[in-house]
Specification:
alpha/beta, 365 residues, single chain, seven-stranded mixed β-sheet, 14 helices, globular
């Protein structure tokens, strides 16, 4: 179901959002750049999206819900490749100049126009089923940690370990196809601290001294990411008396979880008493964010989310797309967390970090 409501600015952006907010973390061009010539960073990102075309085409070819899927998948690949190549010659074409938001948007628009509504649906369902079977064990291990700071760190490491399930990255598509992905393996193999952006110690100190009234969490991928990373963290916030809003995509985009899928996941995870591994979920809400991409422009969210988030005192932007490639420097009126794994070499180079490095940015209001 696609929301038809007009989009509004996220109310917790530092006012005035119109003048201070820029969604994209990286500045792809400067005023002094020639508008008719693609910048080196634009070309780098165009090439990044070109590399992902074969994997998207392969997923589309195998979509049994679309008649004549292989021929339509070929049309997608040709049309999207043509647009990307045209950006190199004329960055002002197709609504440009290009950035990660426009490049994602055009890819999804072409897929939807050809009838591909959710080419990762089967894979998402498989990964959700695997992750749900592990949920009880993951939260039990968290609950066994008595020290508050250590428990907080374990939960954050769980978010980072889960966030590797991301099929918008060509490198991770290859890893996934070859070896699959293990949440426990990812957890144990997180790169050592200090991470490329590492405010975890500051956050742990705050965690021991403060409970937030209401948290808004912009969620990312299906599977281990949402089920073994975000939901244990949200459950712990609920245990501490925090109201939690999970903001999920309006429509499918790569393997990101949609708000309707998330409602279904939580219902399946509830125990016989309607609780999440023994924790009351009456203060847990799932909301349509109004977004339909793996990145997000916070100047355009659903009115429902804007209304419910208005009095929150913690905002969490999770994932490479929502918290790193966009919104890393977005300033909020309240405490905020940007957390995710760096999954593109171009982003790692921008930060001077390592591929699969971790970002945990915590800002107090």
């Amino acid at each position: 179901m696609e929301s038809s409501s007009p989009r509004v600015p996220f109310p917790l952006l530092q006012a005035p959002a119109e003048s201070t907010y820029r969604a994209c973390t990286m500045q792809y061009r400067f005023p002094s750049d020639d508008p008719r010539k693609a910048t080196p960073l634009e070309i780098q990102w165009i090439d990044l999206y070109l590399k992902s075309v074969p994997s998207f085409k392969q997923r589309a070819e195998s979509d049994t819900t679309v008649p004549d899927a292989p021929a339509k998948a070929e049309k997608f690949a040709q049309r999207y490749t043509s647009i990307l190549e045209e950006f190199k010659k004329n960055p002002e074409s197709h609504g440009g100049p290009p950035d990660c938001i426009l490049l994602c948007s055009l890819r999804d628009i072409i897929l939807r126009e050809l009838g591909f509504k959710d080419i990762f649906k089967m894979l998402k369902d498989e990964e959700n089923a695997k992750a749900m079977s592990l949920f009880e064990g993951v939260v039990r291990r968290n609950d066994e940690i008595e020290n508050n700071e250590k428990r907080a760190e374990n939960l954050i490491r769980g978010i980072l370990a889960g966030n590797i399930f991301d099929l918008g990255s060509a490198q991770l598509v290859e890893v996934f196809a070859k070896d699959g992905m293990s949440f426990l393996g990812s957890f144990q193999n997180l790169l050592s601290r200090p991470w490329v952006i590492d405010d975890l110690d500051t956050f742990k100190d705050k965690w021991t001294k403060k409970s937030w009234e209401k948290a808004v969490i912009f969620v990312d991928n299906s599977g281990a990411d949402i089920i073994l990373g975000i939901l244990p963290f949200a459950r712990e916030l609920l245990r501490r008396g925090t109201k939690v809003i999970l903001a999920a995509n309006d429509m499918p985009s790569i393997n990101d979880v949609t708000y309707l899928e998330l409602v279904e996941i939580i219902n399946k995870l509830k125990d016989e008493n309607g609780k999440l591994a023994g924790v009351d979920v009456s203060d847990l809400l799932v909301v349509n964010s109004g977004n339909d991409m793996p990145v997000i422009d916070l100047s355009r969210v659903s009115p429902e989310l804007a209304y419910m988030a208005n009095d929150a005192d913690l905002v969490v932007l999770e994932g490479n797309g929502r918290g790193i490639e966009t919104n890393l420097y977005a300033q909020m009126k309240c405490d905020s967390i940007k957390v995710g794994m760096v999954k593109h070499l171009e982003v790692a180079q921008f930060f001077g970090g390592r591929l699969y490095d971790c970002v945990f940015k915590f800002n107090e209001a």
